[in-house]
Amino acid sequence: MADAADVRRIALELAHVAEIPSDGFDFRVGGKGFVWSYPEREPGRKRVIRTDVAVLFVGDEGEKQALLKGEPELFFTTPAYDGWPLVMLRLDAVDVERLTELVTDAWRMRAPDELGSGSVELS
């Protein structure tokens, strides 16, 4: 089982990562977000930042659908994310090893080529 502290630790171990001030967590590389707290929005209610759910960049619709269909206990989406290469991850359902893989993959896809996004660089 993982939590927001694990997301923070993993993200900050990657090269050139900036943490954006947030009520939860929000990490970027090269100015592009790759993992952040889920801003849950329900009609008629104020937005709630969910630190028990991470939004992850996944690259494309094919990868998104593969994750959603292959591991529905871990991943979900909402209509607000239709058309975006993003999935929500239930942190209490994932182990730290898998979380590390997912956050690192999201970082790799968003990092500019000049940062060496082809391989993981620790800061």
Automatic annotation (TrEMBL):
It comes from the Bacteria. Keywords: DNA-binding. Pfam families: YjbR. One of its GO terms (molecular function) is DNA binding. This is MmcQ/YjbR family DNA-binding protein. It comes from Angustibacter luteus. The lineage of its organism: Bacteria, Bacillati, Actinomycetota, Actinomycetes, Kineosporiales.
